[in-house]
Amino acid sequence: MGMTSYLELRTRLQTWPKYDGCKTVTRAPLLTAAFPGAFNMSSTEHHWLGEYGGFLDWEHDYVFSTVQSCVRADDVERLRLGGRWHLGVFEMADLNGEIAFARRPDYHRLQSWQLEELVRFLATAGIPADRVHASYCAGGPVAELTRGAYDVPVVIPPDTLSHDALCGAGVPEENLIPDRTRDTLLSLHVHRPTPWGYRNEIFVNIGTRRDPDLVDVATSEYLTWRPVFEGSQVRREDIVDLAELDAGALGVGVGVERLCAVVNGLDRVHDVDYLRPFYIALRNALPDTTPAEIHVAGESVRALHRIYTDLHFHPDALFRSGAHGERRLSPKRRKRSARLKRNVPRTLDSATLAQILHQHAGTQPWHEHLADAIPATVQAIADYHASKHSPT
To answer: Contact 294/7 with Cβ under 8 angstroms?
Structure first.
C-alpha cells in the first residue's frame, strides 16, 4: 500500500457516510465564546452554543459535520520531554457527524453503530481490528473517577455497552482497557452546565503484540447525565448530583494528523506530509537547536499563525477592538498566546520567520487566509520579543 496523503485522509473522513439529516458547517474559530479566555479545544461546544444557546436543554435535533481546529497550549510543553504525538494546533474530524437529540435516543443501537463504523473506517485505512485497542469506563464513585475534581455522591456503572460494542465490531477483548479516570468518564463544566457521559479512547498499536506501543487516534462519546446544582448557582463546585439526561448526544472524533502518521508508519506526527516542509525550513533556520526545542518552537509558531489568521479573517472570531478599530486578542488570550510566543527563539528573525510561514501556508490549501495573516503573526511575535528586551 502506498502512502496516504493528509488531504486524502481528511477528505475520506469528510465524505464518510453521515447520520441522516447531517449538515456540513464551517469550523468554529479558535477564538470562540464557547471557551472564554482560551482557544477552541473541542468540536461541539461552539456549534451547540450557536444552535441552542447552551450545552443542555436541546429543543430539537441537530446533526453537523466539520473538521475542527483545536489549540491545546499545554500539549506544546509535552514536546519538551520528547513527546512525538502532540501538536500545538491540530484537526479533529467527526466520522458520522456530531449528533444531538432533543429526546433520549437508543444508545444501545447508536453507540454500537458508531463504534462499528469507526472500526470499519480504520480497516479501510489499513488498520485491522486486531491492532485497535480501546479504553472503557470500569465504573466507580464519581469522586474516585475524577480524582476529587467532583465530590458527587454517585456511583457510575461500568460502560458495558461500549465494551460489548467494541467486541461486536471485531476488537479482541484482550485489547480492551478498563479505566477508572476522567479519560473514560466525560465529566466537564465548560464554563456553563455541560452534560456528562461515557468516553472511549481509541488507540492503534504501532508496536507488536508482545511489546505494544499504543497511539491515541480517536475518541467515542455518548452523553447520559446532566448535572444537578445546589440552589440557584450553576458553578462546577455547586454540582451535588447527576440526573438522567432526557436528551442525548454522541459522536466520534478523529485526530487527523495522528491517524495520518499512524496509517503511514511515521515515527512522529510532525513527519506528516503537510508538516514536513515547514519543519525542514525551521531546522535549516535553527541548525544549533535540539530536536525537542525545534518541535516546541515549531508548534508554538504554527498555533500562533492559526490564531492570528482566525483573529483577522474568521467571520465568527471573538475579538476586542483596539483604539484604531484593529482586532485584538482579549487580555486572557493575550496572556495565553504569550506562553507560545516565548517559545519562539529570538534568533529567528522576522524575514526568515515570514518565509517559513509561507511554507506553512502553502501546504494547507484547506485553510484560507494563512498567507494573508503572515504579517500580523510575524509582527505579534516581534512585538512580544521587543517588550521583553532589557537594555544592557
So the answer is: no
- Helix, strand, coil % in the chain, rounded to nearest 5: 40, 20, 40
Q: Are 137 and 185 in contact (CB under 8 A)?
A: yes
Q: Are strands 132-137 and 176-179 parallel, antiparallel or unpaired?
A: parallel
Please give the Cα distance from 317 to 27 (Å, whole number): 11
pLDDT by 10s per residue, the chain, length 392: 589 999 999 999 999 999 999 999 999 999 999 999 999 999 999 999 999 999 988 999 999 999 999 998 888 989 998 889 999 999 999 999 999 999 999 999 999 999 999 999 999 999 999 999 999 999 999 999 999 999 999 999 999 999 999 999 999 999 999 999 999 999 988 788 999 999 999 999 999 999 999 999 999 999 999 999 988 878 888 899 999 999 999 999 999 999 999 999 999 999 999 999 999 999 999 999 999 999 999 999 999 999 999 999 999 999 999 888 899 999 999 999 999 999 999 999 999 999 999 999 999 999 999 999 999 999 999 999 999 875 54
In the chain, the N- to C-terminal Cα span, in Å, equals: 59
- Count CA atoms within 13 Å of residue 77 on its CB side: 5
CATH code for 6-263?
3.30.930.10
**pTM for the full predicted model:** 0.95
| Domain boundaries defined on the chain | 6-263, 274-388
